[in-house]
Design a protein that fits this description.
heterodimer; A: 473 residues; alpha/beta; 6-stranded parallel beta sheet; two-stranded antiparallel sheet; B: 103 residues; mainly alpha; 5 helices; 83% helix
Chain lengths: 473, 103
């Protein structure tokens, strides 16, 4: 503990204020009306902590030095960060979140590496490596590294640059690796003298590799859940950093994120009706391919002209957007189509599945971009209630979220996941570019359903043609 | 047993902070509509960028070139987390706000 000086006192006060701003900010983020101000509050807290640390922090009586270089680093980091987000397309949001999460994990790991040489010899003489400082360093190093490499892989997977490893044995290999990593941790902490840095670097490498393996065998559809989990991992690494530096704002910020991140992960698992354990162990990879081999499957197509007639003379239609909708950037045209049909007396609503697109809220954000009124967006349960009286469901670039296998097929990877029951409507039109499988890589019997007609094409282009066709009626 | 009691005593404030922070985190997340899951995750992501403070401390007391260089990288990484995190969250939320004012 540092002795009292007025400067340290001011610093600690600013840390309390910053922590309060973090909590308030996070709380306000849970409500649509206050969310944006919440984000601003939290960022204000962060700015406060940064400025006061630079001005007032003292370690063994010394102020923060190297200020010009620090400012240069802060400046460069800001510019690069800001530019990276500038290039962001809304469909790439999950990748961005994962990327920046990885940056935080890397920072935590790097700090641990650097602080290792600062562990006083006297401490090691008394307790060996099993002392407070060494433990917090090793934990921060391990968790930060796992979070960093894992997040990088997640980012790659979401960018479709990395595939899944689907061999059944993979999860046992991953588990074995974890055991080795933990054993190594125990080994290092059990040392009685300061270990050479070689051991520490080796440990870091193992942790990084484990991070890769941890994520590698997880199915692509579960990436949002894993991002949330890795988010809380980084929070935990940050908390250990806070313990190491005896820094209250790092500790509070870290724990806040670790605990809220864990709960959020569990909430997301519930929305998919899957336990976290099942998702992590990659238990469903390569599951249901076998169960749908011998069915006689024929699809029925519909032309844009016929679809236009069907839509124009309906009373009520429901649009279910999915990833294809987002990729195609169809939201603007969809809104125009919506307006046109509404002006002809058709009731148009949207069925938003919780995990439509790539992340919860993805569809809402896209549609909000075009000012679609809030009342038209139905949550899944409400959509399912109204679907019996719906004349046409337009499945726009969605696949797994309307797959009946979730209800009928216990061997399916998506079995038990709540879906939008498109087949309960009077007619279904599926807009899709081709018969390729969705993210879960399984067949979708909805496409072969008697009520379904396939409208092949890009969502955006198809909506354009529908729009033109309806205007001509 | 004595060691455990001693440990608790020496670290009582830290333990208090940790326990209360955990409860706080749980409470704050308790009523999030699924629509806000992603912005919340992004916001929390930005908040753990506070690791930057640790990087500032390390870099601020660096006395050799290696530590300076690594410290520079660490500060940059931390700042990326902070700036990237808050900006992405804000962008996600900007669209929500537009939607709300329409009502």
């Amino acid at each position: 503990m540092e002795l009292f000086t007025s400067q340290i006192s001011i610093l600690e006060m600013s840390y309390i204020l910053a922590s309060v701003l973090f909590v308030l900010g996070l709380k306000r983020l849970s409500n649509p009306d206050t969310a944006r101000s919440g984000n601003l509050l939290a960022s204000g807290g962060m700015l406060l902590a940064i400025i006061f640390t630079i001005l007032f922090h003292k370690k063994e009586g010394e102020h923060i030095g190297n200020i010009p270089w620090i400012l240069a680093a802060l400046f460069t980091g800001s510019i690069v960060g800001w530019l990276t987000t500038k290039k962001l397309k809304m469909t790439a949001t999950p990748q961005m979140v994962s990327l920046f999460n990885g940056m935080g994990g890397a920072c935590a790991a790097l700090i641990s590496l650097m602080e290792f040489s600062n562990v006083p010899d006297s401490l090691i003489l008394k307790h060996g490596m099993l002392n407070g400082e060494a433990i917090t360093i090793m934990m921060g190093l391990m968790i930060g590294s796992i979070s960093f490499s894992g997040s990088m892989i997640v980012s790659g997977k979401l960018g479709r640059k990395i595939g899944d490893i689907t061999t059944k044995g993979m999860r046992y290999v991953t588990l074995a690796f974890l055991i080795i990593l933990l054993a190594f941790l125990v080994f290092i902490l059990g040392m009685q003298a300061r270990p050479s840095m070689i051991w520490i670097y080796l440990f870091t490498a193992l942790a990084l590799i484990y991070g890769i393996m941890f994520v590698m065998s997880i199915d692509g559809t579960n990436m949002p859940v894993i991002i949330s989990l890795l988010n809380s991992f980084t929070g935990l690494a940050v908390a250990f950093g806070g313990l190491l530096f005896d820094n209250q704002v790092m500790l509070t910020g870290g724990i806040l994120v670790a605990s809220s991140g864990t709960i959020l992960t569990i909430l997301m698992c519930k929305a998919k009706n899957r336990s976290l354990f099942t998702i992590i162990s990659g238990a469903f990879v390569g599951g249901a391919m076998d169960s749908t081999t011998d069915r006689d499957k024929a699809i029925k197509e519909i032309s844009h002209g016929d679809a236009a007639i069907l839509l124009r003379y309906s009373q009520k239609i429901l649009i279910v957007p999915g990833y294809g909708f987002a990729v195609s950037k169809a939201q603007q045209l969809c809104h125009e189509l919506d307006d046109l049909l509404t002006s002809k007396g058709v009731e148009v609503k949207y069925g938003i599945h919780p995990v439509a697109g790539r992340m919860p809220g993805h569809m809402n954000v896209l549609l909000a971009e075009t000012d679609v009124p809030y009342e038209k967006l139905l949550e899944m349960e409400d959509a399912n209630k109204e679907i019996g009286s719906t004349d046409v469901v337009i499945v726009a670039g969605a696949n797994d979220i309307v797959n009946p296998a979730a209800e009928d097929d216990p061997s399916s990877p998506i079995y038990g996941m709540p879906v939008i029951k498109a087949w309960n409507a009077k007619n279904v039109i599926v807009i899709k570019r081709s018969m390729t499988k969705g993210y879960a890589a399984i067949e979708n019997d909805l496409f072969y359903h008697p009520k379904t007609r396939m409208l092949f094409g890009d969502v955006n282009a198809s909506m354009q043609q529908l729009l033109a066709a309806i205007k001509n009626l | 047993m004595d060691d455990v009691l001693r440990f608790f005593f020496d670290n009582r404030e830290g333990i208090f902070i940790i326990i209360l922070s955990i409860l706080l985190g749980i409470e704050v997340i308790s009523h999030v509509p699924s629509v806000l899951h992603t912005p919340m995750m992004s916001g929390a992501n930005a908040i753990h960028g506070v690791i930057l403070i640790g990087a500032l401390i390390v870099m601020g007391h660096a006395d050799n070139t290696l530590t300076m260089v690594l410290g520079f990288i660490a500060v940059m990484l931390g700042m990326l987390n902070v700036v990237g995190g808050f900006v992405v969250t804000d962008r996600m939320l900007k669209l929500f706000r537009k939607k709300k004012t329409k009502n």
